[in-house]
Amino acid sequence: MTWLSPTIDRVRTRLSDLAEQAGVSTATVSRVLNGKPGVASSTRQAVLAALDVLGYERPSTLRGRSAGLVGLVVPELTNPVFPAFAQAVESVLAQRGYTPLLCTQAPGGTTEDEYVSTLVDHSVAGIIFISGLHADTRAKHGRYELLRSQGVPIVLVNGHAPGIDAPFVSPDDAEAVDVSVQHLVTLGHTRIGLAVGPERYVPARRKVEAFTAALVRHGVAPDLAAAQRHVISTLYTLEGGQVAAGELFDSGHTAVVCGSDIMALGAVRAARARGLSVPGDVSVVGYDDAPLIAFTEPPLTTVRQPVEAMAHAAVSALLTEISGDRAPRTELLFSPELVVRGSTGPVRR
């Protein structure tokens, strides 16, 4: 009788674990780990991803040489949707052979311009900005034209500025609000409010315009001026959502559409502070469908940003620019999806 040595047994176990995670055979895993030809690129990437997921170190022969550095600038990591964006973009960049450099801003910390200066000093191949100063209608956009003049390809995500010569990728904020209001009207709500971030930012401004138009269209408000009285602009924070929703509840609103999931959690807190149940007394709709938001109490009805699709589009546009070709300048708008859970219900008569 022949017994397997512990070392051989561990190797076979590791191969079988990787094969199961990647959805391939152990023979295919072995070919990838040994750098053998005859394996499709997508299959090879699946095996490498399995190595990472299961916590195994990649063999030095598989690490390869980076195609270049790409900067990824995000406003903060407090809102879970931004880490989700960062992870999605970094994953796509890695699949294309690029090394991402994540730059995260924080109040009182490194600014977007300071990060950009550092990235340029490191000769990055390009930069992706997510919800950057390009989304701020009061910010000067010459900083992006300066980058373009220096030959640095850029892609701007979430916030369109017509004067900037760059590809734009955004969620359809107007559609997101439309489906939210339609959902609440269907449930019988006629006192619907909007809690949103500062209107100086393009996504917030688009949401406000779509919201007021939707109230008029559904007969909830007689005109745009009257509809505007159902809007409260605040900060994109839990506390901001709590304050705005509290004002709306105090003025008799039975439903609140929020500019982010974090704000929606603040709205739920405001309802509970007033002895109101969600969704028994009032309904709350979020925006983003950030990770873990389905496990709140109650599970949050929200509008899902198509993060993965937007990440692929942003990286694709950037690599087109890096290759010397010109990506389309028309803003790419991605349709969001209403995810109905437990924070919305019929209006209480």
Q: Which features does this protein show?
A:
44% helix; 349 residues; alpha/beta; six-stranded mixed sheet; Rossmann fold; disordered N terminus; 13 helices; 434 Repressor (Amino-terminal Domain); globular; 16% strand; six-stranded parallel sheet; 3 domains
CATH topology assignment of the largest domain: Rossmann fold
CATH-derived architecture of the largest domain:
3-Layer(aba) Sandwich
What is the CA-atom radius of gyration, in angstroms? 24 Å
Number of helices: 13
Whole-number mean pLDDT: 90
Strand order of the largest sheet: 2-1-3-4-5-11
Give the CA-based shape. Answer: globular
The oligomeric state is: single chain
Strand content: 15-25%
**Unreliable runs:** 1-13
CA-CA gap between termini: 79 Å
Main beta-sheet annotation: 6 strands, parallel
| Fraction of residues in helix | 40-55%
Number of β-strand runs? 12
> How many domains?
3
CATH class placement of the largest domain = Alpha Beta
In CATH terms, the superfamily of the largest domain is Response regulator
Q: Which structural class do you get from the secondary structure elements?
A: alpha/beta
Can you give a write-up of this model?
It is a single chain. The protein is of the alpha/beta class. It has three domains: 48 residues, lambda repressor-like DNA-binding domains (434 Repressor (Amino-terminal Domain)); 133 residues, Rossmann fold (3-Layer(aba) Sandwich), CATH 3.40.50; 132 residues, 3-Layer(aba) Sandwich (Rossmann fold). It contains 13 helices and twelve strands. Strands 2-1-3-4-5-11 form a six-stranded parallel β-sheet, with helices on both faces. Helix 1 packs across helix 2, helix 5 packs across helix 13 and helix 11 packs across helix 12. It is globular, with a radius of gyration of 24 Å. It starts with 5 loop residues before the first helix and ends in a 10-residue tail after the last strand. It comes from Isoptericola jiangsuensis. InterPro entries: HTH_LacI (IPR000843), LacI/GalR-like_sensor (IPR046335), Lambda_DNA-bd_dom_sf (IPR010982), Peripla_BP_I (IPR028082). This is LacI family transcriptional regulator. GO terms for molecular function: DNA-binding transcription factor activity; transcription cis-regulatory region binding.
